[in-house]
Amino acid sequence: MAFSALLTPDEAEKLSVFLTAGVSTDMDGVVSVFKSEPISYRTQTTRSWEFTDLLAGGNSEFINGDDDASLSNYGKDVIVGVLDSGVWPESQSFSDQGMEPVPQSWKGICQPGVAFNASHCNRKLIGARYYLKGYEAQYGPLNETIDFRSARDRDGHGTHTASTVAGREVPHTTLLGGFANGTAAGGAPLARLAIYKVCWAIPGQATFFENTCAGEDMLAAFDDAIADGVHVISISIVPYQLSSYGEDLLALGAFHAAKRDIVVAASCGNSGPAPSTVRNVAPWIISVAASSIDRVFSSPVLLGNGMKIEGESVTPHKLSMMHPLIYAGDAEIPGTTNNETSGLCLQGTLSKELVQGKIVLCLRGYSRNVEKGLEVRGAGGLGFILQNPVDGISISVDAHVLPGTAVLSNDSATILNYIKSNKNPTASILSARTVLGSKPSPFMAGFSSAGPNPLEPNILKPDITAPGLNILAAWSEATSPTKLFDDSRVVKYNILSGTSMSCPHVAAAAVLIKATHPNWSSAAIRSALMTTATQTNKLGLPITDGTGDTAATPFHYGSGHFRPGKALDPGLIYDANYTDYLLYLCNYNTSLPSIDPSFTCPDDFPSPTDLNYPSIAVSNVNSSGISVRRTVTNVGVGASVYKVRVEAPVGYTVEISPETMNFSSVGQKESFNIVIRPGSGLRNGYAFGWYTWSDGIHSVRSPIVVSSH
């Protein structure tokens, strides 16, 4: 069990020395001491489930039809722990109407606090706790004007993620202005929710900044969730900096969960598309990337020369008449900007005299999208056009405080050229509307963090992708949709983008599998999700990266886009247990003592490539090649024959033996070897391939990622 304690540096050092040396203390069970680090972790911010069903070949009736969720009884009685910023318990998404009594296995509590008491828990929201010791050790006593000293959510992020996992069906749900009308529901609407508030507002920072989440608070929450009896944990939080397994308290908490076969799904980060930005890379965590769905919020810009440029917005305003158009860089107060910051609509930079009554073109950078709109409004602007903050085709929409739309980066250059070449440029911003069936879909979100794994390149991360772009879910009524102090609007549902949104989708899929196969291990559930994922979009073409033009790779999406229905019957699974992870950690001498000092590594332990993982990543293959071993367990048809098909990475040969596996019973295990060698056409960098085991019914597909010296 984890706990926080305020120690002097001398006390902490002495305790750490005793533990390292194996000296007995009166604190039985204490295995390690960690120093609290500032801002170590942070959060990552009803079409998605219907779209997921369509992608798997369904009829788009995921919530109400004879669907894969109903096959698993909608996750009934599976308990999901959500580590985040709390919950808004009054949301209809957390209604317990028609639900049966709380499962007897539940051992948790409903912790009272400010604006939160036992009556806020029910048969849906069965538990709630909050953790402040680590936070207050860093920032001092909580300022209760910026957050609730309880499990109640002031930020909105935790409410959003919790309802995405297991929110009840709420018909006729919309955003401001009627956008995204439909039935809002989590992926496992009959699962139970346990809330662990570990993320809090940072004193002195604007409310729209991400919360901070202290590592020791998360570790304590993990251990409480384990003791409480959760089956799945969803954590849309990433380490602020890359740390070793022994120093990463999120990874350590997840390791404790893995020991009890609790599935942990976590965000992979929002620092993409740059390589090696992926986080939450421990192999006992499902690391989730973010991709799009087939819904856009079209809000075009019409220029005075008749050119129409596509934009996106969920702002419930319009400027259908032509108005003067100005570039922010031409409307700034002298001395408030420089070459790097000109044109960005930063706070206090725009001249009221020049902006009054006009539409302003704002370039990206240095501030949030919603801040730019606030600056334009403060200077008397009628509306604004925003250059998309991310290159490519993924636009994260916002409910701005004035008429506004975001356009692709290249299109902003077109608009700027029009402004520069016309004496009296004008524009209008047309009404936004919800459009379904956009193509291509899915594509990878430009912000989604990417591989290779910076900590251990022989473990592929991320593992999988799921919807994370413009996701509608429940929201805290203690904050506005923009989280701006000057925005007084209150909403029950809001749209957010991030791997924070994709993570609870995968957690919900894990719930559905757990409900169908209650005795499966956490590794088996991860394997089922990964080996049944798809690498193609709705058109049957390869999923693209954020540009929309280039095929994505396993560094973007891991094994592919999740398909929960397929994962219920994967055929074969790659299993692993706590001991396998300990043997894996033997490769990192500095990490194992702090994780489990009771375990002694054998003289001969397996390399990271031989961990029984559903994907294969091998870095620095030499000229003689490398052999990798895997073991699969039959969870499909008793008597079955599986044959393998290989798509070798360019420049390599891949031999798998045996090429055929015969199973006579469910639960039977078979092993095979994979030999990878450099061949003709070898190129610098990484190459990608696949191998697939099939019995004619199931396709068990795994990526191969390889590089050479």
UniProtKB/TrEMBL annotation:
Per the record, a Pfam family? Peptidase_S8
The record's CDD domains line, in alphabetical order, gives: PA_subtilisin_like, Peptidases_S8_3
Quick one: a GO biological-process term for this protein?
Answer: proteolysis
PA domain: which residues?
351-411
Looking at the record, the residues that make up the Peptidase S8/S53 domain are: 75-544
Name the source's superkingdom: Eukaryota
Does the record carry Disulfide bond as a key word? no
List the catalytic residues. Answer: 84, 157, 500
Is DNA-binding tagged as a keyword? Answer: no
Q: Taking every annotated instance into account, which residue ranges of this chain make up the domain Subtilisin-like protease fibronectin type-III? A: 610-706
Q: Single GO molecular-function term?
A: serine-type endopeptidase activity
UniProt keywords, alphabetically = Hydrolase, Protease, Serine protease, Signal
Family note: Belongs to the peptidase S8 family.
> What is the protein name stated in its UniProt record?
Subtilisin-like protease SBT5.6
Q: What is the lineage of its organism?
A: Eukaryota, Viridiplantae, Streptophyta, Embryophyta, Tracheophyta
